[in-house]
Fold this protein.
Amino acid sequence: LERDLSSFVGTESSLVFSSGYLANLGAVTALAGEGDIVVSDALSHASLVDACRLSRARVVVAPHAEPDVVDAALAAGGWRRALVVTDSVFSADGDLAPLRELHDVVRRRGAVLLVDDAHALGVVGRRGQGAAHAAGLVGEPDVVITTTLSKSLGSQGGAVLGSAELVAHLIDAARSFIFDTGLAPVCAATARAALELIVANPDLPAAARQNAVTIAAAVKQLGFETFDPAAAVVPVIIGAADDAVAATALMAEQGIAVGCFRPPSVHPGTSRLRLTARADLSAAQLDDVARALGQVAKRFGHVTS
Ligand SMILES: Cc1ncc(COP(=O)(O)O)c(C=O)c1O
């Protein structure tokens, strides 16, 4: 699985963890510690947030997608090693981080960029090799990629991808690798089979992205706030947490399984449905999604008819 993952994404090496959460924990804590600085996007995934806290490095939370602020934090100095961490595709909003600009900053300041490609692997880029690959960052010595096996690969587990030197260091230093049982063989086999499907069907990533665009258009037409999807994630902002829970149930009653994001996943007042587009949704199924969202709009949205 490690060979398949690194050959698909294009890195020299990779190391599999028993979850994406633990991959982030292991990578960040192995790359930053006391005397170091970690700069994290304000909307980084909770696993990165927890990893930053556990690292004992000084943590600076930069406003969302603002490379200039990251640059200023690093320019201020006072650190031994510096790590910049961000999701590539943000899990609650579905937008894309400014990866090239962040890498320019990191390169200029002698830092390392960790990109969490969980929502991009298998979805972003012509063949689904992820957002770091699409941004031309694969193979850069100062770039570390993390991912989960639980989204486009439909399995369980996580991985860190990068140089052979990085992986050798993680094997010796990443506590969530050393002190955790390895991934179950069935999960590794499932992820490998899914990866094979993505490699054999290069149209799947674009199909997932196109279906997300179609769903987002329906969401907008119903008057909901959303974001232009960079991958498969489409949020539908509902507002109050109770309403989001009820809206999720209403979608389920209509046969559509969606995530319900509420505090602590998102800020109070921005609770939402988190839809994830599959590549194999038919036109009829996309119509069903729009119809189901229409019912949600009638009950919780701004639609009056
Ligand atoms: C951006 C991001 N990173 C990491 C994770 C954690 O991955 P896992 O569920 O494999 O622990 C998730 C969600 O599951 C995620 O959305």
About this structure: DSSP finds twelve helices and ten strands in the chain.
